[in-house]
Specification:
Elements lengths: L9 E5 L3 H7 L4 H22 L3 E8 L7 H24 L3 E5 L7 H14 L6 E8 L1 H17 L10 H6 L2 H4 L7 E4 L18 E4 L9 H11 L12
Parallel strand pairs: 1-2, 1-5, 2-4, 3-4, 5-6
Bound molecules: 3-methylbut-3-enyl trihydrogen diphosphate (2 copies) and magnesium ion.
One 3-methylbut-3-enyl trihydrogen diphosphate (IPE) binds next to strand 2.
């Protein structure tokens, strides 16, 4: 494994542009998702090789249920295929897989495949690979606030003790001990967060590019990560 020098500890990616990639080729959208899944596999490998500690990918948002049943089913099918095919390799590479989002409402076959993956890799200590699935920042904050309210109601928490740390702990990321992202990359040409890690992104560096996700290569990724090392992060203060 190549040792990381000044690379971001936590990289988050919005994997966007699969549909347009397929449309450009006159292919059905699901073929774009298939190509996107292959790109994801390569990015996970490169992250692990580079020594990135946390990689979080946006795979399906709380808003993506607005798509057709056909497309949604296609995305889930591809996800199952990915985890089944790559489970051994992920495990051998010491990768730990987590899901961020409410996946309890996913179809049984999806839950089964994901559950197996999470269980098998739970003690791995290399790259932590988070898949944001049925994930939305607002939904995540609502759930966290509701949990805190329940604790107040039960007399376990004083409202005066609710602070940034306690809110962070009650988000999906906090539950898995995942730190805030240092860098958020959005390929696909759109310049927006689309309800992704909005609380956690407070001081993240943001990188947008036009490459459609299926065309996003590990080399382009590595170049972005290395240039991140040159950015000056001030966190509101001044670096003299
Ligand atoms: C991202 O690609 C994958 C998901 C949202 C699941 P899109 O499907 O959004 O691709 P475009 O943006 O339509 O090209
Ligand atoms: C964001 O992409 C969600 C994922 C990549 C999973 P979308 O394609 O859903 O976002 P919008 O609709 O362009 O904002
Ligand atoms: Mg999109």
């Amino acid at each position: 494994m190549t040792e990381a020098t000044n690379l971001p500890r936590h990289v988050a990616i919005i994997m966007d542009g699969n549909g347009r990639w397929a449309t450009k080729r006159k292919l059905p959208r699901v073929m774009g998702h298939n190509a996107g899944m292959k790109a994801m596999r390569e990015i996970v490998r490169r992250s692990s090789d580079l020594g990135v500690q946390y990689l979080t990918v946006y795979a399906f948002s709380t808003e993506n249920w607005k798509r057709t049943q056909e497309e949604i089913g296609g995305i889930f099918g591809l996800l199952i295929k990915y985890v089944n095919q790559d489970l051994e390799e992920l495990h051998e590479e010491n990768v730990r897989v987590n899901i961020l989002g409410d996946w309890s409402i996913m179809p049984e076959n999806v839950r089964e495949a994901l559950g197996r993956t999470i269980f098998k890799t739970r003690n791995n200590t290399g790259l932590t690979f988070n898949i944001a699935l049925n994930y939305g920042s607002r939904d995540e904050v609502v759930r966290g606030v509701r949990e805190l309210a329940e604790m107040v109601k039960a007399g376990e928490l004083d409202p005066a003790d609710i602070d940034e740390e306690s809110i962070s702990k009650h988000l999906y990321t906090g539950k898995f001990g995942v730190p805030d992202p240092d860098l958020i990359i959005r390929p696909g040409g759109e310049v927006r967060l689309s309800n992704y890690l909005m609380w956690q992104a407070a001081y993240a560096e943001l990188y947008f590019c036009d490459t459609l996700w299926p065309d996003f290569t590990p080399d382009e990724y590595e170049t972005i990560l290395r240039s991140f090392g040159n950015r000056e992060r001030r966190f509101g203060g001044r670096n003299e």
